[in-house]
Amino acid sequence: MRFLFASDSFKGTLKSERTIELLTRAAKEVFGEVECCGIPVADGGEGTVDAVVAAEHGTWIQAEVSGPLLGKRVRPLTESWTGSVRFWRWQLRPG
Description:
Number of domains: 2
Strand order of the largest sheet: 3-4-5
Order of helices and strands: EHEHEEE
Number of strands: 5
Strand content: 15-25%
Helix content: 25-40%
Shape: elongated
Radius of gyration: 18 Å
C-alpha cells in the first residue's frame, strides 16, 4: 500500500514537514509495511515560502537589500531564517 501526503502547515503549531512525519508514523502504525511519500504544500499563507524552499531543496540565506526607503540599504531581520515570512522586519543599516 502506498500513501502520498500533501500537507499544509497548521498555523502557529506544525510545519508541513512535521505534519508529513506524523502522518507517515501513523500510517505505519495502523497499516504496517507501507510506502509513504510527502510533499509540503501551502495555500499562500505563512507556510508558502517554507513549502517552496522544501520543494526546491533550497536553503535560507541572509542578504542585504535595498528597501523602499529612498534606496537606502536595509537589513531584513527575522526571528528565525527558517520561520515564517510574517515575522520579517526591516531596519536601516547603521552608518
